[in-house]
Specification:
mainly beta; 2 helices; ten-stranded antiparallel beta sheet
């Protein structure tokens, strides 16, 4: 059965690792044989017709957040207790790395002063509960949105939303849906929305 893969997040090719880590010069946690660095990369392929854009995530260890943080979309809510950390890259956003959390932004700013001009809001969360479904746990689903402003341009990434595939758009009225999950509790897999590249 033929299937279109829309913004599928999968394990990235290990050939990217050397150049990316060398360019960053960041200090990452040590990874043992059971936790190799290539498992922290994930490729992104966009559905937007007529383009050849690609992207990538580099995932750092999650951070415990207590008390829980509410993620809201329309009338729908999740209460989440772990924040995702890492970096995002998209061809369509220019040749820059985009942090997914304040600590990573601080690290990038210490390497490149131009990051001090980046305004960032939002976050991605996992280990969530659904209050509208008797507080059922969604341990591996990812929800949230990141918004960036840099040099007068606005960029954003969303996870955990419904999509209009025909229009290559996200639906802002909710509900929250489990469109990204940790596959084998390790690799985020699913559909994202990038306001420049689409699904």
């Amino acid at each position: 059965m033929h299937k279109k893969i829309l913004g599928l997040v999968a394990v990235a090719v290990s050939a990217m690792i050397g150049s990316a880590s060398a360019a960053l010069s960041l200090t990452f946690p040590s990874f043992g044989a059971a936790d190799p660095i290539q498992d922290k990369f994930a490729d992104v392929h966009y559905f937007t017709p007529g383009n050849n854009y690609q992207g990538s995530f580099f995932w750092l260890p999650t951070v415990q957040v207590l008390p829980s943080v509410p993620v809201l979309l329309g009338a729908d809510t999740r209460h989440c207790t772990k924040q995702l950390r890492g970096l995002y890259y998209s061809d369509a956003w220019g040749q820059r790395l985009w942090p997914l959390d304040p600590q990573t932004l601080s690290g990038l700013t210490s390497l490149d002063a131009s990051y001090s001009d980046v305004t960032m809001t939002g976050a991605f969360y996992t280990s969530c509960s659904n209050p509208s479904n008797s507080g059922s746990l969604e341990l591996y689903s990812v929800y949230g949105q990141m918004k960036y402003t840099w040099k007068g341009k606005v960029f954003s990434i969303s996870m955990g939303r419904r999509y209009d595939v025909t229009a290559n758009a996200t639906l802002s009225g909710g509900p929250l849906v489990s469109s990204v999950q940790y596959f084998n509790n390790q690799t985020p897999l699913g559909y994202i929305y990038d306001n420049i590249s689409g699904i």
